[in-house]
Amino acid sequence: MTSEGLQISKEESGIIVSPTKTITLRIFRYNPKINNESKFDEFKIPYQRWTTVLDAILEVKKHLDHSIAVRYSCRQASCGSCGMKINGRPALACFTKISELNSDVITIEPMNNFPIIRDLAVGFERMFSTHKKIKPYIINEESEINPGTKEFLQTPEDVEKYIQFSSCIKCGLCNSACPTMATDSSFVGPQALAQAYRYVADNRDKGKDDRLKIIDDSHGIFRCHFAGSCSQVCPKGVDPAMGIQLLRGYLLGFRD
Question: 149, CA 20 to 30 Å: which among 88, 101, 136, 174?
């Protein structure tokens, strides 16, 4: 309304109002504490062009079914908590807009290759264990802070060798997409292997030999069949498949 009490139309005001549409969410439901049967529950909810899959799930949880189990935190693709399968593809729910899926039905499931805790929430114990196994930190006696310690300088070329792999947020999407993870419960996985390369390629690190021994076993790096699925689903642009191939170069003696 103007000060004279005249009503202004949306066109005259210049306000752009996005029309509300409706989407059907098919959410996987499973609670092992009750029974071993799983099912899909369907919910119809409105959405705007900016609505993410996580927004939609939380709308259902808030207004229609409080019992849905889902893990999330930052809501800005930084923490890696909300990984799940969206229309069959591993993705971050907070980073996936419904309007970009081009589908009237969105099927949401827990990630493959992880034990299901309940509904969409899975257990990360295996991934965290293998990540810890490859010693994901700089190994260098000179890195201890003592009187007279100086900064370890790196050239842009030194940093370029590993910086991409530092973007890993441990969301688990790469492990979920990996076909070898589905057939070998002891496989170290693309997430850990890519992080092993991240530290091996860092010229500040002196733990290369230790890490290569860890991944050079029957369930290690050579179990990777180079399907490349891991790199296709990474939300941060990390290329685990390339890291694994470069890491093989160290094991085969092609790299120092």
Answer: 136
> Can you say whether residue 143 is alpha, beta or left, with left for phi > 0 and alpha for psi between -120 and 50 degrees?
alpha
Q: Is 90 helix (H, G, I), strand (E, B) or coil?
A: strand
Name residue, tokens 């992880």.
114
Per-residue pLDDT reduced to its tens digit, 18-34: 567 999 999 999 999 99
Q: What is the DSSP string of 23-63?
A: EEEEEEE--TTT-S--EEEEEEEEE-TT-BHHHHHHHHHHH
Domain 13-122 CATH (choose: 3.30.360.10, 3.10.20.30, 2.60.40.650, 3.30.365.10) = 3.10.20.30
- Give dist(CA 1, CA 171) in Å, integer: 48
Per-residue pLDDT band for 115 (boundaries 50, 70, 90) equals very high
- For 125-251, CATH number? 1.10.1060.10
Helix axes 190-200, 240-251, angle to 10 degrees: 60
pLDDT above 90: residue 144: no
